[in-house]
Write a structure and sequence with these properties.
Elements: E1 8-12, E2 14-15, E3 18-19, H1 20-27, E4 36-40, E5 49-50, H2 51-55, E6 71-76, E7 86-90, H3 91-105, E8 112-115, H4 122-135, E9 138-141, H5 147-156, E10 166-167, E11 176-177, H6 184-189, E12 193-194, E13 199-203, E14 216-221, E15 228-229, H7 235-238, E16 245-253, E17 259-264, E18 268-271, E19 274-277, H8 278-285, E20 291-301, E21 305-314, H9 323-332, E22 343-346, H10 360-366
Parallel strand pairs: 1-4, 4-5, 8-9, 21-22
Antiparallel strand pairs: 2-3, 6-7, 7-15, 10-11, 11-12, 13-14, 14-16, 16-17, 18-19, 20-21
Length: 371
């Protein structure tokens, strides 16, 4: 909030176990730019605005002139490095995304889409706000992911969009996905092909394109790509000189142009669409007195896509740490609960490279998550 300079904040009074009102009261002195707090669902207290009353009122302000290149959205990444990065999207990049999705999914006003991502996530913004505004579709939201409730909503709300895989990020919302004419195997086994005017390139460490079927770093460019980071110093590393966005992911494209993700150039774990930094977890876990050495890896999961697994070499003479011990240690050091590892493995030593570095690929293979 402080970094973005937000002037208006929308909150629920309470959500799950968080008292947002109390949180904002504690932070208000550190947010000099914040002028208004709007409360959704719960009634407004002194110094707050009630969302229902605002939604039913008419604006007296003149409509601002439209500029397609103006910044429309500042949204933050999950924090794949130590700090989350502010991502800037213009009206044009967001509309390009909506137009491309409408074409590839063949959306019409009678379609209903189930969107389990929150409206603070780029997927929620695109599918629950932008796409309905452009195509007149209906968006069905989930307060939190629950498979049984999702299945019930599909039937009750007559959701029409088929289940498919999508590859993208906060910076580049949709790079690839499957279309209606793609065979089932392509929908299940790959991330699909580039949408709309998006271009895809797989390159080696020297930045040169590799042949079909060969692994390399995934580069993408197209009208949906973000304008840049709020911190312009980050842009040089994010883009090639000729405008390709470096995703940091590794993959290969088959002869039909379909993408398969094979790994991460940046050591991150993608859980339920959110990026978790393995390095951040490792640095915090290493501070635990019972840990001599640690490696954090992503392992496949049928629900989350990946889960974070902490592999520890315990310090001799100490009590063996448990997953609950690690969770308490990490939260005490300020880590968000959504980044906590779900699995713990204890080892006498690690597989290593010739230079002594931990060989994470071998760890994944040992634990059933080889790539």
């Amino acid at each position: 909030l402080g970094e973005s300079g937000a002037r208006v904040l929308f909150i629920p009074g309470r959500h799950r176990d968080c008292d947002h009102r109390a949180l904002i009261r504690d932070l208000r002195a550190e947010l000099p730019a914040l002028d208004h707090v709007v409360v959704v669902r719960d009634g407004a207290l002194a110094g707050e605005h009630e969302y229902g009353a605002l939604a039913g009122s008419e604006s007296s302000a003149d409509r601002a002139p439209a500029n397609a290149d103006a910044i429309a959205l500042l949204i933050y990444t999950s924090g794949t490095t130590a700090d989350a990065k502010g991502v800037l999207h213009s009206h044009e990049t967001l509309l390009a995304e909506a137009r491309s999705l409408g074409a590839v999914h063949e959306l019409v006003p009678t379609d209903t889409v189930l969107m389990p991502s929150p409206l603070t996530h780029i997927s929620g913004i695109v599918h629950a706000l932008l796409v309905p505004a452009v195509y007149g579709t209906t968006a069905v939201l989930l307060d939190r992911w629950e498979p049984g409730e999702a299945l019930a909503l599909v039937g009750r709300e007559r959701v029409t969009c088929v289940v498919k895989r999508v590859y993208g990020s906060t910076e580049f919302p949709t790079v690839t996905t499957s279309g209606p004419d793609d065979p089932p195997a392509r929908r299940v086994e790959t991330e699909g092909r580039p949408i709309g005017a998006v271009e895809l390139r797989i390159v080696d460490e020297a930045g040169e394109p590799v042949p079909a079927g060969h692994e390399g770093e995934i580069l993408a460019r197209g009208p949906e790509c973000f304008v840049g980071y709020r911190d312009p110093a980050l842009n040089a590393e994010a883009f090639t000189p000729d405008g390709w966005f470096r995703t940091g992911d590794l993959g290969a494209v088959d002869a039909a142009g379909a993408l398969r993700i094979t790994g991460r150039r940046k050591d991150i774990i993608i859980r339920k669409g959110e990026n978790i930094s393995a390095r951040e977890l490792e640095e915090l876990i290493a501070m635990h007195p019972a840990v001599a050495e640690v490696a954090v890896i992503g392992l496949p999961d049928t629900v989350a896509g990946e889960v974070a697994c902490a592999v520890l070499r315990p310090r001799p003479g100490t009590s063996l740490p448990t997953l609950a011990d690690l969770a308490a240690h990490l939260t005490d050091h300020g880590l968000s609960r959504r980044k906590l590892p779900e699995r713990l493995e204890l080892v006498a030593d690690f597989p290593r490279t010739a230079s002594g570095k931990i060989l994470k690929r071998a760890l994944r293979e040992q634990l059933g998550g080889g790539r």
